[in-house]
Write a structure and sequence with these properties.
The chain is of the alpha/beta class and 385 residues long. The chain contains 15 helices and 14 strands. It folds into two domains: 2-180 and 367-384, Glycogen Phosphorylase B (Rossmann fold, 3-Layer(aba) Sandwich); 191-363, Rossmann fold (3-Layer(aba) Sandwich), CATH 3.40.50. Strands 3-4-2-1-5-6-7-8 form an eight-stranded mixed beta sheet, sandwiched between helices. It has a six-stranded parallel beta sheet with strand order 11-10-9-12-13-14, sandwiched between helices. Strand 3 and strand 4 form a beta hairpin. Helix 7 (217-224) runs parallel beside helix 8.
Length: 385
């Protein structure tokens, strides 16, 4: 069976897509991914048998970055994507972004194929669209509902998020495919210490992901001033990286903060396994944040890291289930500092939390568990052919 995945990125840092295509190819499916070309990347890649990656060049991306130019850039990509997707003549088209649903629906109709929607975010309530007027976001939600209900299957990353879509869109029987990492050994190493030039005796607090104001990075740096000995590593990319760097200088802690570039998703565990605490201190700025189920949480668990998370329902439930960290008010540096001190000041506490994190990863939050829903969807589709 041939599956065509339509994505809105270059796939370099899209770990979820990489895991999905690997699982599907391993179970006998042929998979083609169509994404966006970035400078320095090949236009076509043939990886493992059964997987083809194609990247589309978008000329308008050379124009300045602007919210107002985004519709033009997206329109060009959508047209090029539609043409390429029709040519793929797949049996199923999977859209990994709400914005691509119309393309997926058109091409699946033209090729008499099935449409699958991989819903990764509560899109209309995500930070990226908060600047839009409420009426526009309502129209986007109507659009998402219309095509999601026409899909053969809707994949979701988390039961709580699935419940929200079920309520909003009357979408029943969504398939949960958690954004969990591959099950791998979590051996302590010095990779992150060497890259950030941190001494062996200094505890490392790690954040992996987008560097943006709503991620609570400022509060973690403020908390660092209240902790006797620790080093904060923020690994990722984002619009506010330079702003955070300047803030670290103004707080007088720039020597205790490192900003590292993102790495391939397959390398995240190696870096995390050299840290001591993983942090996810999202702010409650939107519904998408409040019901977050970020992949970095499960990477931290796989690495055996105690975690400090925002006291939101989903994040707090995981921490309490594994007794592997603390849930705090993400806007309270004192609470964050207290949680850090509790974890790093007592070796026994750290060890118990580390073991609890790893136990959750081994038994529940790993890709071997998550892929079952994905394989069931496409197994059923293959049997229908």
């Amino acid at each position: 069976m041939k599956i065509c995945m339509l994505v809105a990125n270059s796939v370099v840092y899209d770990g979820r897509t990489k895991k999905q295509v690997s699982s599907l190819a391993r179970h006998g499916h042929s998979v083609e991914i169509i994404g966006i070309h970035d400078p320095g990347l090949p236009y076509a890649e043939v990886g493992t048998p059964g997987i083809l990656m194609r990247r589309i060049s978008v000329w308008s991306r050379r124009l300045p970055k602007s919210r107002f130019l985004f519709p033009l850039k997206f329109a060009e990509y959508a047209l090029r994507l539609l043409i390429r997707a029709v040519e793929s003549k797949a049996d199923a088209y999977q859209c990994s972004a709400m914005e691509l649903l119309l393309i997926g629906w058109i091409v699946s109709g033209l090729n008499r194929a099935r449409l699958v929607y991989d819903c990764r975010e509560i899109v209309t309530e995500a930070m990226v669209y908060q600047w839009l007027p409420r009426q526009v976001r309502h129209m986007m939600r109507v659009y998402e509902q219309a095509f999601a209900r026409r899909a053969y299957a809707v994949l979701n990353v988390d039961p709580q998020r699935a419940d929200i879509l079920a309520d909003w869109f009357n979408l029943q029987d969504q398939v949960i495919v958690g954004n969990y990492p591959e099950l791998r050994p979590a051996s302590r190493n010095g990779t992150i210490r060497r890259r950030a030039n941190i001494g062996d005796d200094t505890p490392i607090i790690l954040y992996q992901g987008i560097l943006r104001m709503d991620r609570g990075i400022s509060e973690v740096m403020q908390a660092l001033r209240l902790v006797r000995q620790a080093h904060f590593v923020a690994m990722g990319y984002g619009p506010d990286r330079e702003r955070f760097s300047r803030e670290a200088e103004s707080l007088g802690i720039s020597h205790r903060v490192s900003f590292l570039d993102p790495v391939d998703p397959s390398e995240l565990l190696e870096y995390a396994a050299g840290a001591d605490i993983g942090v996810i201190t999202l702010h409650n700025t939107c519904v998408n944040n409040y019901y977050a189920a970020p992949g970095k949480l499960y990477d931290y668990l796989m690495a055996g890291l105690p975690v400090i998370v925002s006291d939101f329902p989903g994040l707090k439930a995981v921490v309490e289930q594994g007794r592997c960290g603390a849930a705090v008010d993400p806007r309270d540096p004192q609470a964050i500092a207290s949680a850090i001190e509790t974890i790093i000041s007592d070796k026994g506490t750290w060890t118990r939390m580390s073991q609890g994190a790893r136990r959750l990863a081994e038994t529940q939050y790993n890709w071997s568990v998550a892929e079952q829903g994905l394989l069931r969807v496409y197994g059923d589709l293959r049997r229908e052919q």
